[in-house]
C-alpha cells in the first residue's frame, strides 16, 4: 500500500471535472489509498466510503482478486485492437456480462464509460429503425432531471439544466422530455417506491400525439435517477412506459450505469422491477471501477436486425479504440466472478432493510425535508438557504468528510450508495455522522 503523502502535490495542471476548481485547490481533499470500505487521505485519516467511490465500487476497494487479474493482464498483453481483430478476454467479459443481463439482452457492445454507452445505445436505436426500413424514426425522448453522461447525445436526452445550459445551441434537435417523477407534496418520506405517480408515464402518450409515433425512435430513462438526487420511480411507472413503447413501436432504453450490478439487490434494476428494456447501458460497477469500462446490452431483435440485415461488411459504423481493452476486460471478468462467489447482489437485498431504517432516522433532523430510498441507494433532501441553493448540502458534505465519512451531494440533496459489502455498524456510523453534522449546520 502506498504511504499517504503529507504534502499535497502541485495541483495547477489538472483541470478537475465537475469541480469548483478554485475552491477545491484552496483547501484540497485528497485520497491517497483505499481498501474495503475505507479511503485513506493524504494526511493519514481513514474515511468511511458512503458512496462506493462515485456509485461504482460495488465490491469494496482494492479487492485482491481484481488487482491480481489486472496485474496479470498488464504483464501478458497491455493492448489489442478490437477493430477487425480480437482478444479472448473481451469475449469472455461479454459472456460473463450476458450471464446477468435480463431477458434476451445477450449481445454486448463494449465501451469505456457510461457516457459512451449512452451515445452508443442511441446510435444503435437509430441503426435498428433504419435497418427495418423506418429511417424516419429519429426522435429521442428523455426525461427532466435525467442524467445520461456528458456526450452531446447524453446531455441532449438528459434533463439536468446546468449540464445543458452552456451547450444548448449544439444539442441534438429531435429530442423531447417526459416530466420527472419527484413530488414532495404527494410522496415525501416514501420508503421504497412511492404509491403516487404512475400516471406521469402517460405523458409519453401526449408526446406520441404531438410528434407522431412514426417519428419516435426511443425513450431513455434511468430506472432510478441517481445524479439528480435519487428519484425513485412510482409503483407501476416503468411498466406503463414499457406498455406505451410496445404499443407504438418505440424502443425503451434503461440507463443502468448506476443501478446496474447489484445496487437494488438484483443484477440490474430491470430484474428488480420486472420490466425488460430493449437496450440497457451499464458502466461503473461492471468491473468495480478498477479500469474504465462501459457496455450496452442489446436484445436479439435489435442485434439480429442490424447485423443480419446488413448486405455484408461492417454492420454498425461505431466503436472506440479502447472497446474491450484487455485490462478492463480482465477486471470485468474478475469482478463478476467476485460478485457471484460472494453473492453480493443477494447480500445487498438482505442489507437494504437495515439501510432503509437507518436513513429514515434522519426524518426530523434539522433542514431535512425528504428522505427516499430503494435497495442500497438513498437521498436526503435539505431545505435551501435563502439566495444560496446548494451551499447547505455542500457544507454537510465537507463536515462529514472531516469527521471521517464520505457522502455525495447534488444541489441540496445528499446521496448515499455504499459498497455492497457494508456492515450494519458502518451503516449506522454513516447516518449518525450525518445527523450530528446536520445539528451543527446553520
Automatic annotation (TrEMBL):
Belongs to the class-III pyridoxal-phosphate-dependent aminotransferase family. PANTHER family: AMINOTRANSFERASE, AMINOTRANSFERASE CLASS-III. The lineage of its organism: Bacteria, Pseudomonadati, Pseudomonadota, Betaproteobacteria, Burkholderiales. This is Omega amino acid--pyruvate aminotransferase. InterPro entries: Aminotrans_3, PyrdxlP-dep_Trfase, PyrdxlP-dep_Trfase_major, PyrdxlP-dep_Trfase_small. SUPFAM superfamilies: PLP-dependent transferases. GO terms for molecular function: pyridoxal phosphate binding; transaminase activity. It comes from Paraburkholderia monticola. It comes from the Bacteria. Pfam families: Aminotran_3.
